[in-house]
Amino acid sequence: MVTRADIGVIGGSGFYSLLDDAEEIQLATPYGPPSDVVTVGRIGSRSVAFIPRHGRDHRFPPHRIPYRANLWALRSLGVRQVLAPSAVGSLRAEYGPGAMVIPDQLVDRTSGRVQTYYDIDGAVHVSFADPYCPSGRAAAVRTARSGGWATVDGGTLVVIEGPRFSTRAESQWFAGNGWSIVGMTGFPEAILARELALCYTSLSLVTDHDAGVEAGQGVTHDEVLEFFAQNVTRMRTLVADTVQALPHERACSCGSALDGIKLPFELP
Ligand SMILES: [Zn+2]
After folding, report:
1. How distant is the alpha carbon of residue 98 from its chain centre?
2. Distant-in-sequence, close-in-space partners of 191: CB < 8 Å, separation ≥ 6
3. pLDDT of 174-193, one tens digit each?
4. Is 208 an active-site residue?
5. Which DSSP symbol is given to 167?
6. Which InterPro entries does the protein's record reference (predicted)?
7. 111-151 residue pLDDT tens
């Protein structure tokens, strides 16, 4: 029997223990290998494929992650809905460490990352006005709230190139635009998911205040890692519960993102 999964999770290596009856699959894609072997297993009645975004040994910094291979690998396993937990900095004093933000908008401040599958044989223009899946977002918000998280429904995630953190001026500029949180991995992950007609939902855990926020002194890598480690178990529970809260049949428009568009190749 060919191994299949309905739901994909791209996250930190703390998520391995999520899966029952886990099987590891080495996958090749036209874009090279994904970040690591893909682990496929079950959470309750749902079949789930997990990819550690940075690799099991954390060898890929945000700007070197094989984003295209990761999403392609998930789709080729049958995945149609993706959950993307990650750590972010807060641009607002009122969203402190431990807040769970389920963003509904995104600003791309990355540079030099390949952000499309369709870079040969003509242009494919995919709508990205609303980058996240409304059904996935609703499931995540509901689940986080019932799990006792301080949950923010909506907001704008700014994705910076990294690996450095923001300057104080950059951070104040982002905040001044009304944007909510800053991360390094949410793009091009979100657009690549859309280009494959996948549902994509970001679960953004605030680990600290960004440099420009009044409460913040600026961020160190150690602080981020320490905070995230403290919250691994909580995050794992949230992701597992959200997986089970996702709809069995998609009623959102994510699956029709490519309708009427002539693709230069067939999707897996
Ligand atoms: Zn969707």
Report:
1. 17
2. 115, 116, 126, 128, 131
3. 999 999 999 999 999 999 99
4. yes
5. P
6. MTAP (IPR010044), Nucleoside_phosphorylase_d (IPR000845), Nucleoside_phosphorylase_sf (IPR035994), Purine_phosphorylase-2_CS (IPR018099)
7. 999 999 999 878 899 999 999 999 999 999 999 999 999 99
